[in-house]
## 1
Amino acid sequence: MATFGVGIIGCGWVAEEYIKAFGKDGRAEVRALVSRSRSKPEAYRDRYGLDCAITSDHAEVLARTDIDIVVVCTPHDAHTEYVVAAANAGKHVIIEKPVALTMADVRRQQDAVRRAGVKTVVSFVLHWNPLLVTIDQLIRDGAFGKVFMVEVDYFHRIWMGPGHWLGTKRQGGTSMLAAGCHAVDALRWFARSEAVEVSAYETRTENPNEYVGTTSAVVKFADGTIGRTTSCFDARMPYVFNIGVYGTEGSLRNDMLYAPRIFPGQNAFAKLPCILPDSGDVSHHPFLGEVAHFLDCLTQDKEPFPNLDDAAKTMALCIAADRSAAEGRPVQLATV
């Protein structure tokens, strides 16, 4: 089996996790790093013993016939340029979250990917966290009966100093887009229904980011399920990724499970012994699982999940929540 060639566009902290993941998998190798400066990619090349080109010209990399996969992990507002270019060049694409900061840009990416017929995966990397994988399987197995309410929260004190792109509206976007989208993605995943309406509120503290740091939303799903999510950059507390799944036959609160349908006679919550999504450090995140899944899908000609089309629905819900909070009214997802 031929080895997949990988080009990475953007050489910030997340790029290193992809380098490590591809290196451990063995079915692909990083052959090019694209960056405006040379210091970071040269450091990665030397640290991981890469035999790769280093360039500031993404077109040079996209023209190479030995590059099959492009990883886009630039600042958020630049994703669309590179995703569209990669798709037009016939490359499969891994897209860092958020996909983009506007739905117009998301649609441009979708159009390019559909025309090219390439595969995508969006890096909602918690899809490969053991706790979330377990929750997904419990839902599949009917452990909760009918799930009627889901809660997922992202709490992380992200205060960027002056000049850092993540704290700006132009490149970081909003709290919900910049990082809360992880929680929104999990909310949709576990609700198993399409979001139709969202009502949200926001509050500002004295943080140095250009955008509001805390947004909380209630979501109505098509089948009547209720969702609730909060993205909070402001609270002085350790990183927390809260998950609640509530059903007619069982419930879950983070790693505490009550499911008498599976465990007859259970009379108290039981603790699930698995790795939790309890750190905001990207080195804690399961990029190896994401990369392995994508390579599996390429070799077996299967559709990855979450792909760009699924992630577009997460982006729409984030953008609708921000609009609802800003305008003080419920927003229909069909209008976004």
Note: The two ends are 43 Å apart (CA to CA).
## 2
Amino acid sequence: MAIRVQYNVYSVHSRLRGEQVEVRLGAESLEVWYAQRRVEVMPRLRGERKHRIEYRHIIDWLVKKPGAFENYRYRDDLYPTSRFRVASDALKRSRGPRGTREYLGILQLAAQESEVGVDDALRHLIDRGEPISIAAVAAFLSSDDPPSTPTAVTIADVNLASYDALLGVV
């Protein structure tokens, strides 16, 4: 479910669908209140026509209606990291329309278990070229094996003398 506050869209948990909520704007944050209780605090968006969609708020709804994912206006917000996007694309290529349902299951697993753990599982599967599935991610999460270390990236120092030569400074 989404609410519109000062021309911006924010997601709130789907259990608030059809309910009336109170929104309190602060300088840096936005608070959502329901039944005299604060149920959500999120960073305030600056400007207009922006959006902040949290996949955890809508994943239960999307799992029930996987066809809605393809045409969802804020679909790009449903990829927490680049590995989730790679996994989604790989599942679509290998399984066609059923790949969307599989991806939503993985995203639901991230919401229920651990986003970092699922991201590590996806990294493991992608790096080894293994097929991506809910079962493979769940098996990785339940295993006692520590996640593999991330790939080391080395950035060479830049020689600024060549830029000085372009400017005529020696």
Note: The radius of gyration is 21 Å.
